[in-house]
UniProtKB/TrEMBL annotation:
Pathway: Porphyrin-containing compound metabolism. It is a multi-pass membrane protein. It comes from uncultured Microbacterium sp. The chain crosses the membrane at residues 21-42, 80-102, 109-126, 132-150, 162-185, 191-212, 224-249, 278-297, 304-324, 330-351. This is Cytochrome oxidase assembly protein. PANTHER family: HEME A SYNTHASE (PTHR35457:SF1). The gene is ctaA. Its main location: membrane. It is found in: Membrane. One of its GO terms (biological process) is heme A biosynthetic process. The lineage of its organism: Bacteria, Bacillati, Actinomycetota, Actinomycetes, Micrococcales. It comes from the Bacteria.
Length: 373
């Protein structure tokens, strides 16, 4: 008998909220992937400074003016997508808290939001004389979000994992908006732009983690694979992280700087392209070993490893293709999105290294206990 079969009814998600929550969670994941694509479009079309100000598009207008042409529309479209991502993240958070912690904590979170707005207004007044009003307001609101997260997690007794993940996504989206503003005011500084992309990729991983944990049985978990396999899986994660890191550095110093007037004078992009490939090939080898072993030993991660294999293989093909074709914008954009999907697949694999414990029902002679599933 499994833990899922013996878990109390209160640990399960009522179907009337389970379906909307799953739908919103999937929407959040998809939106995080889409915004990587729209952000890539901003950069690859040279629209990074299509809106010269933040949070306004121009000193006089929130929306782009006709004089800014297509670049202004593309940049502003990405900003609108940030709003969509934020609204979905907020909806996931509030429904998660309401489902597992009750409406009282939802009301507390809303009071924190009101306090955050007041704090943001105060920070705006202080920072505005230094032309940093928008950043002051955003910082005040973000501080309130962090305080609300700590409060709701401390007061929650069920599914703290889901509540924490939902808060991370919302706080991350808000922080990303500020980082995007910094990218504009720093004239697309390569390191700021690179961090902006990396943070978006991490949010894709967090939303993927939320989906996994939402579908998982709550309660104690045990390692479901051999110890050496788990260690090798984490080493593979490091190889993936190194591949993405050097890929971000390569793109930051390549021809797609985000604006035709921004010239990169940092690292040698040609050399970095080779460095980026080295951990990529190591990654492919490690994933292959993990997949073969998982299927031979019929480990629970084997199907998700096939997804990871597919993502990595396609990513390598696109990477080689774009390098040989002189980095066409479409292929570079696909490469950026595939990197986030590869990272999400790796996240799912890591989370499936553990499984719920099985429960041995209590008998008159012995209390209930758990055994490895």
């Amino acid at each position: 008998m499994t833990l899922a079969q013996t878990a109390p009814r209160s640990a399960q998600i009522p179907d009337r909220v389970g379906r909307p929550l799953r739908l919103l969670a999937w929407s959040s994941f998809i939106a995080e992937v889409v915004i990587i694509g729209t952000g890539g479009a901003v950069r690859l079309t040279g629209s990074g400074l299509g809106c010269t100000e933040w949070p306004l598009c121009t000193p006089e207008s929130l929306v782009p003016l006709p004089a800014q042409g297509i670049h202004g529309i593309i940049e502003f479209g990405n900003r609108l997508m940030t709003g969509v991502v934020g609204i979905i993240a907020l909806a996931v958070l509030l429904l998660t808290i309401a489902t597992f912690a009750g409406r009282r904590l939802v009301n507390r979170a809303l009071w924190f939001a009101a306090g955050g707005i007041a704090l943001g207004v105060g920070a705006y007044v202080v920072a505005n004389p230094f032309d940093l009003g928008a950043f002051g307001f955003s910082s005040g609101l973000l501080l309130a979000v962090l305080a609300a997260m700590i409060d709701s997690v401390r007061r929650s007794e069920r599914r703290r994992d889901l509540i924490v993940l939902a808060w991370i996504v919302l706080a991350g989206v808000m922080a990303q908006a500020v980082v995007g503003g910094l990218a504009v005011v720093t004239d697309l500084n390569a390191f700021v732009v690179g961090f902006h992309y990396t943070a978006s990729l991490l949010l894709v991983c967090v939303t993927a983690a939320y989906l996994v944990r939402l579908a998982a049985v709550p309660g104690p978990r045990e390692r479901a694979v051999p110890a050496w396999f788990a260690i090798l899986a984490h080493v593979t994660t490091l190889a993936l992280a190194a591949t993405i890191f050097f890929g971000v550095l390569t793109t930051s110093n390549g021809p797609h700087s985000g604006d035709e007037d921004i010239i990169r004078n940092g690292f040698d992009a040609t050399f970095l392209a080779h460095v980026h490939a080295w951990p990529g090939y190591i990654l492919a080898g490690l994933v292959t070993v993990l997949t073969v072993v998982a299927w031979v030993q019929r480990l629970p991660v084997r199907r998700w490893l096939l997804v990871l294999v597919a993502a990595v293989v396609v990513q390598i093909v696109v990477g080689v293709w774009q390098a040989r074709e002189g980095l066409p914008e479409v292929l570079v954009g696909i490469h950026m999105v595939l990197a986030s999907l590869s990272a999400a697949a790796m996240t799912v694999v890591i989370l499936h290294l553990k499984a719920p414990r099985a429960v041995v029902p209590a008998t008159p002679d012995a209390p209930a206990s758990t055994v490895f599933s």
